[in-house]
Write a structure and sequence with these properties.
With 343 residues, this protein is an alpha+beta fold. The chain is built from 6 helices and 14 strands. The protein has a single domain, classed as L-amino peptidase D-ALA esterase/amidase, CATH 3.60.70.12.
């Protein structure tokens, strides 16, 4: 059950129809989950569009709040302001394998479509799930990536699935969560969608709508753990934002984290990646000068709020949807659902 199923409403802006990142047209999400005696892990893939993103690249930006992370592909996003592949989320030591798998996927897709490819920039982000998963065995394979891509859909699962299977959040079970907000300009509605992979925060700091619930939860295993492990936030929108404006919006996502009690610990990598499905770029064979819509910076305040609200709710959805999981050492991450309405 998502967080609103417990009667908890976040923010005041309206949500999209699904209240997921997939309220942005063309965006879908898929998972592949690996569960076993030694493993609680997987991969989650955000498909930014239905067609080939290498042919028509999407305006994009990234923002690193705390750089304790091993993400791939961020340098080119910062330089060129575009993405050209799906975005994959997995565990820390599987970044290399998933990067290689994404290269293979894009090579095969472009070959099938008659598109020449000699270089590509896969985007892979990670959190460390080693409290529950024997991470050194690096069991997430190319087949898992392809399974996640094949299963991508708008109404996707949340919680302890895919890349979020082994993750924690504020000392409890974390995972994959999503939310969206609708903003209106000039008589037209636009979506701002967020997907998170949560693995950050401390239990005593957890606050939900101003209620310090974390202080009342008794969980001896998790209460005093340091804040390390990271949070990945992916933002999508159909607003015609430039890469500079997307980066400005990404900088407001940490507001949603802070409202839940995150202090961004030294060992927690907070990485934010965003893209727009508007004003896409054609390949090098296109004209030198093209027309594009421009969004007024002076009108960004509702977009900033939308990003913050959706981030806050996405994190809560990740926690509310996740079940209790015990890892290979016997360590247990308990679900938030065990405590909601009881403390």
């Amino acid at each position: 059950m998502r967080i609103r199923g417990y009667g908890i409403t976040v923010g005041r802006l309206p949500t999209g129809k699904l209240n997921r990142i997939s309220d942005v047209p063309g965006v879908t999400v898929g998972h592949s989950t690996v569960i076993g005696d030694r493993h609680q892990t997987g991969v989650t893939v955000i498909m930014p569009c239905a067609d080939n993103p290498f042919v028509r690249k999407l305006p994009a930006a990234c923002f690193v709040l705390n750089g304790y992370g091993k993400s791939a592909g961020l340098v080119q996003i910062e330089e060129l302001g575009t993405i050209e592949t799906p975005i994959a989320l997995t565990n820390t030591l599987n970044v290399g394998k998933i990067h290689e798998a994404l290269v293979g996927y894009m090579v095969d897709r472009c070959a099938a479509e008659g598109v020449k490819l000699t270089s590509v920039n896969p985007v892979v982000c990670e959190c460390n799930d080693s409290r529950l998963n024997l991470i050194t065995e690096r069991v997430v394979e190319r087949e898992n990536l392809l399974e996640a891509i094949a299963g991508a859909r708008p109404d996707f699962a949340e919680g302890a699935v895919g890349g979020g299977r082994g993750m924690g959040c504020h000392g409890l079970k974390g995972g994959i969560g999503s939310s969206s907000r609708t903003v209106s300009f000039d008589g037209r509605d636009y979506a701002v969608g967020i997907l998170v992979m949560t693995n950050h925060g401390k239990l005593p700091d957890l606050v939900i709508n101003g209620d310090p619930i974390g202080r009342r939860i008794t969980d001896a295993q998790n209460a005093d753990l340091p804040d390390r492990g990271s949070c990945i936030v992916i933002l999508a929108t159909d607003l015609p934002l430039s890469d500079r404006q997307i980066r400005r919006v990404l900088k407001r996502c940490p507001v949603g984290m802070a409202r839940l009690g995150s202090y961004v610990g030294e060992g927690s990598g907070e990485i934010f990646v965003g893209f727009s499905v508007a004003n896409r770029f054609v390949s090098d064979s296109g004209p030198a000068v093209t027309a594009a819509e421009r969004f007024d910076d002076a009108r960004l305040d509702p977009v900033f709020r939308a990003a913050a609200e959706a981030t806050e709710e996405a994190i809560l959805n990740a926690m509310a949807e996740a079940e209790t999981v015990t890892g290979y050492t016997g360590f247990t991450r308990h679900a938030l659902s065990e405590y909601l309405g009881k403390v």
